[in-house]
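Troubleshooting: if your tokenizer reports a length mismatch, compare against these two reference records.
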Amino acid sequence: MPRKGRGGKRKRVCQFCVDKIAVVDYKESNRLTKYLTERGKILPRRISGNCARHQRQVTVAIKRARQVALLPYTME
């Protein structure tokens, strides 16, 4: 139970589990951009709130989307 005044944050839930998405697709670039920082880095699991299974799939999907130029490697 979080204490009052200590900034207790609620644990985020995996949006892929909530939406019942079994496999993350690299072609959904709009969904994948939510898991990138403004500089183009992949957000870690503790910040994005993904479960371990979906975080691994997101990482692979982002790397594949970058390979076929759907997402940039870096943002300026």
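Reference record two:
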Amino acid sequence: MAKTRAQVAELDPVWARILSEAEDAVRHEPLLGGLVHSSVLHHPTIERALAYRVSLKLASGEMSEQILREICDEAYGSDPDLALAARADIVAVYDRDPACHRFLQPLLFFKGFQAVQCHRISHWLWEQGRTDLAYLFQMRCSEVFGVDIHPAAKIGRGIMIDHAHSIVIGETAVVGDNVSMLHSVTLGGTGKEEEDRHPKIGDGVLIGAGAKVLGNIRIGNCSRIAAGSVVLEEVPPCKTVAGVPARIVGEAGCPQPAINMDHLLRGS
């Protein structure tokens, strides 16, 4: 039996809000009706909508949308944390991006959100030992969104990647919860070593546009990395670093820089 809107709102408030916003979007712009219905209103759950959206974006002559949809449906059916993380990501984008005015927007229009969800599927495949399929998802995500995240990289919840162009995250990188980063960020290595070689980003970290964090170093919780910085050494929690190479230039400026999204270096 189909659930009523009130039941959906009680069980899944994020999805209920997306449905409401989708109906409102169709009323205000009927030309978007086909897109909104196929991407949102046609689906009974957010998991099904996410599977549809990811498979539609990544489909190509090399692998059809139907096969990709089956893979995504399997992933969401097997691991409820995938959709829980997606919900947290939607809320994060809405809370932190001043250009985001509805929960619907990340799902339909924001490639940063969409790329992170593609990575979550590729990481699930990697953990299942299906590495070639995981690499296919990585390749298509890079081609479609300009976001290249190795399937083995571990990404937390509540992630906001604003603009999301030219993002690179390496194989052994770890990104904590509630992290915000802007375009052209690299979490990379420093050479050809094959062991643990990529950064570990703590919870609540804000990474500015064009910043490069290189090597197996720890970036402490609730720290800030200024735009254009090259970070080669560990950063303590709640500090701001800037420069090439980056140095500590002050405190983080607030308890939650990734949520506050303040990039200014006052008093530095």
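Descriptive notes for reference record two:
- The first strand starts at residue 147 and ends at 149.
- The mean pLDDT is 94.
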